[in-house]
Amino acid sequence: MSYITSIEIALPGYQYSKAEILEAGREWLRGTEVEALFCKFVESAKINKRYFALPLDHILSLNGLGERSNVFAKEGLKLSAQAVASALKFRRIAPSDVDALIFTSCSVPIIPTLDVLLINNLGFRNDLFRLPIYQYGCAGGIAGLALADKVVKSKKRALLVSVEVCSLLYQKKDFSISNLVGSALFGDGAAAVVISREADEGLEILKTESYLIPNSSHLMGYDIKDDGFHLLLDKELPSELSLCAPKIVNNFLKSCNLSSDDIHCWLLHPGGIKVLRSLIKALDISKEKTEPAWNVLASYGNMSSASILFALSEFMKNFSYKKGDLVLMVGIGPGLTVELILMRCTCDKYGVK
Prior knowledge:
Blueprint: E1 2-10, E2 14-17, H1 18-29, H2 35-44, E3 49-52, H3 56-59, H4 64-91, E4 100-105, H5 114-122, E5 129-134, H6 140-151, E6 157-165, H7 177-185, E7 188-196, E8 203-212, E9 220-225, E10 228-233, H8 237-255, E11 263-268, H9 273-283, H10 291-300, H11 307-318, E12 326-333, E13 337-345
Helix pairs in contact: 1-2, 2-7, 4-5, 8-9, 10-11
C-alpha cells in the first residue's frame, strides 16, 4: 500500500474576479456576434475568481507556440517550485529524500520537460526515477497519483507535481464555442503531492483503475495549429459521461465489495458545472458528498490536471473525516478516459467545513 502524506497547492500572482473577467471579455469581443454569449458562459460557470500567470492583456497578446513555451518554462517552473517546496517542508523532508519524481501537465510542451528544471533548481538527486506525463489532459493529476502508487512499491518516496498554465492556450482570434467556453472556465495553478510506502497520517491508496471509453476521442482535446493549441469540447460530453460513468464506477466499487453508499466523500474532477451535475445525477450521489470539487471550481476555475489535486487538498485540509472513511477520486480526461482511485483515511480530522 502507499500513503498520501502531504499535499500543497500554488497559485500565480494575478487574481481576477468574475466582474473583471466579464469586463476583459467585453473589451476582447466588442463588436463581435459572440460578446453576449461569452458573458453568458462566464455568468453561468459559477466561478468567483481565477488566477493567471500573466495579466489578461498580456495573455491575449501572445503569438505562436514559441512565445507560449518560453512563458511556460518560466512561470511553470516558478509555480511548481513553490508547490514542491511547501509539500516537502510540511513533511520535513529535503529534495534529496525523494526517490521518484512524476510530473504532469497538458500546457504548452517544452523539451527538456519542466521536471528537469525542477531537479536542477531545487537540489533533487540526479539518480532519482523521473517520469513526465504530458497531454493526459484533465485526468493527468489522478493518473500521476495512480502511477506514484505503483512506483513506491519499489521506491521509498515519490513526489507528484502537476502544473498548468491553461491561460497560455487562450486564442484571441478564435471565436468558436469551445474557445469561448474554455476562456470562461480555465485558470492556472500547481499542486505537489508526497506519496510514501511508509504508513502515516493522511490517506491510504487502496486501488486504482483507468478506463478508456471506446470511440469517444472526439469529445475533448486540442487542435494544434501554427499559432498554438485550440480547445475542442463537444457539447455531448456531459451526456456521454452520464451514459458511461455509472457502469464504470459501479463495476469498480463492486470489485472492491463496496457500493456508492460506502463512500464518505467523492472527489470529482472540477471540470465545470455541467460535468459535475451530470456525474452527480448519473451516479445518484448527493451534492454534499462532492463539496470539495464545487469549492475548487468556484475559487479557482478548471486547472486541468491540477484541479483534482486541488480538490484532494481541499478535502484533506478543510473537511472532517474519521479513520477508516473511504474516499473515491474520479478523474475525466481526453480519450475519453475515466480514472479512479479508492482511498481510506488513516486518522481522524475535524475540518472547518
